Amino acid sequence: MLDPAASLALAEQVAQAAKQLGFDTALIGAAALAVHRYTRGTDNPGRIVDTPAGAAIARAQPLPGSSLRCVTIEDLVALKLYAGGLADHADIVQVLARNPEVDLAAVRDVAAPFDAGDHLEALIEQAASLGPRRR
After folding, report:
1. Domain tally for the chain?
2. Is residue 59 part of a domain?
3. DSSP assigned state of 99
4. Which residue of 30, 36, 53, 134 has the smallest Cβ count within 10 Å?
5. What mean pLDDT comes out for the span 53-59?
6. What is the mean pLDDT of residues 14-18?
7. Percentage of the chain lying above the pLDDT 90 cut
């Protein structure tokens, strides 16, 4: 099992090295979920496809006190919709439920183009059912 502290330290080293080489980086997937208060392992490692990741990385925000950047919740939802698995949909529900302050209009704007199965509104409703949320 990976040590989270060691993994984060390694990610920071990689981000610093990439920056020195002129590359932008950001946490996505399970690491971004953890930053946004929902921890889960990644179950599809090594998959390389054309995704909304480029735009997500460009908009990523720096983590306080770290050289790492993390994708926004809006972009994380877009990435999860694009991936489209059941676990990805559950991740969306959980991350939205754990972040009730998120701007749902912004989530819709960023993520809707990647909602091929028209699941986003149902997922937002499921998140709302887990606790009080603004619509």
Report:
1. 1
2. yes
3. -
4. 134
5. 90
6. 93
7. 63
**What is the structure's pLDDT at 109?**
96
Could you read off the pLDDT of 90-117 as tens digits, one per residue?
A: 999 999 999 999 999 999 999 999 998 9
Q: Between the CA of residue 103 and those of 14, 38, 41, 74, 87, what are the distances in Å?
A: 31, 18, 26, 9, 23
Q: In this predicted structure, what is the pLDDT of residue 52?
A: 85
Cα–Cα distance measured from residue 35 to residue 33, given in angstroms and rounded to the nearest whole number: 5
Residue 20, domain member (yes or no): yes
Q: Where are the beta strands (DSSP E) in the chain?
A: 61-62, 69-70
The pTM score is 0.70
Residue-range definition of the domain harbouring residue 91: 4-129
Let me know if residue 134 belongs to a domain: no
Q: b/e per residue, 70-105, with b = 16+ CB within 10 A? A: bbbbbbbbbbbbbbeeeebbebbbbbbbbbeebebe
Distance between CA 87 and CA 84 in Å, rounded?
A: 8
3-class state of residue 61 by DSSP: strand
Q: Are 122 and 81 in contact (CB under 8 A)?
A: no
